[in-house]
Specification:
Elements: H1 10-16, E1 33-36, H2 46-54, E2 59-60, H3 61-68, H4 72-84, E3 88-91, E4 98-100, E5 106-108, H5 110-122
Antiparallel strand pairs: 1-2, 1-3, 4-5
Helix pairs in contact: 3-4
Length: about 120
Amino acid sequence: MSRPARDENPDRLYTVTGGRSRAAAQVFDLVTLVVSESDPTPGMQSEHARILRICRNPTAVVEIAANLRLPVSIVKILLSDLLAMGRITARHPRAVRATTTADGTHITDPELLEQVLVALRNL
């Protein structure tokens, strides 16, 4: 079984994101829950419309990427677009307990990282 979008045409991904390589909003990680706030509209980019349909119930970013068969980085760009348009809301499933070391490095809660790893393995 191949990974989603491993063989995806780079030109298509460039077109889907309008040439962008990073999301404008840095609010999304793999377990951020996304919920649609509106239905798709005529003329909307097909990937945006699919995300809105997928996210009628809270859905994690990693699940959206798997459903769309697109890389997470591309999905984050699309989600950033929808967030800017007010068509989705995003929230983390729980407050992340993080510690900052003396050199400024953030250490995330190991339990959360374990949950993400399990979810990825289940895909």
